[in-house]
Design a protein that fits this description.
The complex is a heterodimer of chains A (323) and B (336). Chain A is α/β, with parallel strands linked by helices. Chain A has helices at 5-30, 46-52, 68-74, 78-85, 119-133, 151-162, 182-185, 210-225, 254-262, 265-275, 281-304; strands at residues 60-64, 109-113, 139-144, 167-173, 176-177, 180-181, 201-206, 231-236. In chain A, the strands form two sheets. Chain A has a six-stranded parallel sheet, with helices on both faces. In chain A, strands 5-6 form a two-stranded antiparallel sheet. Classes of the chains: A alpha/beta (323), B alpha/beta (336).
């Protein structure tokens, strides 16, 4: 079934949530009020927004250091996220994880890894647990195009295929692996073709088109829920802010960058919703205003929260403190 | 007239002990699962049959042979453990941990801390190793120091079947990741069978033999070698105390400090190569904490700092011998 008007507006809300948070992170970093390595996913918001509307709280995601968009879409509360990124005791992980290691099991965000590719085997294990226990859960394993060249990707696709695990591998192909172009580092133009090597479905989709991402993910999730095993979805997109905050992106051809900005999925989808009569500009403005207020509260909460105590250094190493 | 026979104590070997421990844990807790290369019965029940019979008894959903894919299946074990399963995975040989090191040290060890305690990894990684069978440079290494150097992992290395059973039960019940090192050349050495549901707490060393003059500290294979090496020393009137660490990390410092405070002398023996090994850490801690009670510098006996060689004379020379243990003890006596 195609996405309903209600679903499309919800996808917009999630895209706006990601976009406005990203804007604010950058503002705060530039103002010197937030100190963190920041891997902006600006430009990629459509992908988790359109997938997460198909998930329940029971479903799991795994993601990577460029993963704040995935977490916001899945439902990590902005307050807890902001506090974590500010290194505060009130953060999701008590300030002990930071931007590359957000975990929030309550919303199904089980692992964020700073090691390229490494969350995919873990996603297989989450799927395995669901399979062994007969639970109705799927796992969305998010990663980038660069990760499709590391062994963990290949081992995971094979393992998920052999064991028919309910895992959907979502390659957010933003065309750059750190600073290396897809053509210079990846043997194929469409990463989805690699699925054939593991005997599973592989689909390339326009990652900037919410309806296309939704339709593709819906089918993959249905297959996984039915016990038909994993799917590799390659969602082609673009990242607007380089690899990490401060990266001027000199390796990105100017015409490619300009074309990507002209194709920015956020304003494009907003305009489409209004043009198609699915929402009025005023309704979308109201959503944006609500999000901005929520971010204001999150920033205040994070800035006013205490840093963790030094005693935390000896806590959470093991279940019980070592002698 | 009927004759009353004294029943000899039952003996089992370490392969049987570990098999029994896993089976008993699986029986007690449906969350315990097993996977690794060739571990199911169709594939032979493990390369040395440690997992024999488990898939037949508990089914191939809970006991699975995996592809040769250590990064994949150890990562999957991390993932399954995050949501409450208790995987016991076999990384066939300790050298193969190198290909899944990222999952062990960057993920299993750190996820409790990095998540602020929201998740944890109750995972046991079984792995076998040991020189002596001519398996050369990539199938024989003791690599425990790699894991001991990573906060968040426990490292266990039993020396006998009863401890192997009790430590395995404790490791499976533990809420954190455990590297469980099985010594291949002594797998089939029989020992007294443990009582049912015998538990050996992690982090507790055992005093194998009490003595007054010198403390010999070992684990896994070296406990056997220490036992042999002290025979002539004892005959010469040197009273040796022998400690089997059983758990290498976290170290049972209470037991070590009490013993060395008493004897004033210590010799650490391990099969791993000497440099930057567990022996160095133990030696450093003893010097730091009981310096004034030491009568001589702590000595280390270990394998040579080279890859494990193939050729039999080289392999034998790579390992320490009983003479080296004896010599190390005599050094502690002569320098005091």
């Amino acid at each position: 079934m195609a996405a309903s008007q209600r679903i499309l507006v919800e996808i917009y809300r999630k895209m706006a949530l990601i976009k406005h948070n990203d804007d604010r992170f950058i503002t705060m970093i530039k103002a010197g009020r937030l100190t963190m390595p920041y891997y902006s996913a600006r430009g990629q918001e459509c992908i988790p927004a359109a997938i997460s509307v198909l998930l329940t709280d029971k479903d799991y995601i795994t993601t990577i250091y460029r993963g704040v968009h995935d977490m916001l879409a899945k439902g990590v509360p902005p307050k807890l996220l902001w506090a974590e990124l500010a290194g505060k005791a009130t953060g999701t992980c008590k300030g002990k994880g930071g931007p590359m290691h957000i975990t929030h099991p309550d919303s199904g965000c089980m692992v964020t890894t700073g090691i390229v590719g490494a969350s995919m085997p873990i996603a297989c294990g989450l799927g395995l647990a669901a399979q062994i226990r007969g639970e109705d859960r799927v796992v969305i394993a998010n990663f980038g195009d660069g990760a499709s060249n590391i062994g963990a990707f290949h081992e995971s696709l094979n393992l998920a295929a052999v064991w028919k695990l309910p895992v959907i591998f979502v390659c957010q192909n933003n065309l750059f692996a750190e600073h290396t172009t897809l053509a210079n580092g990846t043997s194929v133009q469409d990463i989805a073709v690699r699925a054939a090597g593991y005997g599973i479905a592989g689909i390339t989709v326009d990652g900037n088109d919410p309806r296309a991402v939704y339709d593709t993910a819906r089918d993959a999730i249905s297959r996984a829920r039915a016990g038909a095993g994993p799917t590799l979805i390659e969602a082609k997109t673009f990242r607007f802010n380089g690899h990490v905050f401060g990266d001027p992106g000199e390796y990105i051809p100017k015409d490619q960058y300009a074309a990507a900005v002209a194709n920015d999925p956020y304003p494009r989808f907003r305009d489409a919703l209004v043009a198609e009569g699915l929402a009025t500009a005023a309704e979308l403005d109201e959503i944006d205003t609500f999000i901005e207020r929520e971010i204001d509260e999150a920033v205040t909460f994070a800035m006013n929260s205490p840093f963790p105590e030094l005693s935390e250094l000896a806590i959470d190493i093991f279940a019980t403190a070592a002698a | 007239m009927s004759q009353t026979l004294v029943k000899p104590p039952a003996k089992i070997n370490t392969v049987q002990a570990i098999n029994q421990a896993i089976a008993d844990a699986m029986e007690a807790d449906p969350n315990v699962i097993v996977f690794g290369e060739d571990v199911a019965d169709f594939e032979g029940g493990g390369i040395v049959k440690v997992t024999q019979g488990l898939s037949t008894r508990f089914g191939t959903s809970r006991v699975r042979s995996t592809p040769i894919s250590e990064m994949g299946f150890v990562g999957a074990a991390v993932g399954a453990s995050l949501v409450g399963l208790r995987p016991v995975v076999e990384v066939m040989l300790m050298n193969f941990t190198a290909v899944c090191m990222d999952q062990i040290t960057n993920h299993a060890a750190k996820l409790r801390f990095m998540s602020g305690g929201q998740t944890h990894v109750p995972l046991v990684i079984r792995t076998m190793t040991g020189a002596g069978f001519g398996t050369g440079g990539q199938h024989s290494d003791f690599l425990e120091a790699w894991f001991c150097h990573t906060p968040g992992i426990k490292v266990v290395a039993p020396s006998n079947p009863a401890d192997a059973y009790g430590l395995m039960r404790a490791a499976i019940a533990d809420e954190d990741p455990v590297i469980f090192i099985e010594h291949l050349p002594t797998y089939w050495v029989p020992g007294p069978a443990p009582e049912p549901d015998h538990i050996v707490p992690l982090g507790k060393a055992s005093i194998v033999k009490e003595g007054r003059d010198v403390t010999l500290i070992g684990y896994s294979r070296s406990v056997h070698d220490i036992g042999a090496a002290i025979v002539p020393l004892e005959k010469a009137g040197i009273s040796c105390e022998v400690i089997d660490l059983r758990t290498i990390s976290p170290l049972d410092m209470d037991t070590l400090l009490a013993s060395v405070s008493k004897t004033g002398r210590a010799v650490i023996v391990h099969e791993a190569v000497r440099s930057f090994g567990a022996g160095a850490e133990i030696s450093a801690r003893l010097h730091e904490r009981v310096w004034k009670k030491l009568k001589a510098p702590v000595q280390r006996v270990a394998s040579k700092d080279c890859p494990v060689p193939f050729s039999k004379p080289l392999e034998t020379g790579f390992l320490y011998g009983a003479a080296e243990i004896e010599a190390a003890v005599r050094i502690t006596l002569e320098t005091s």
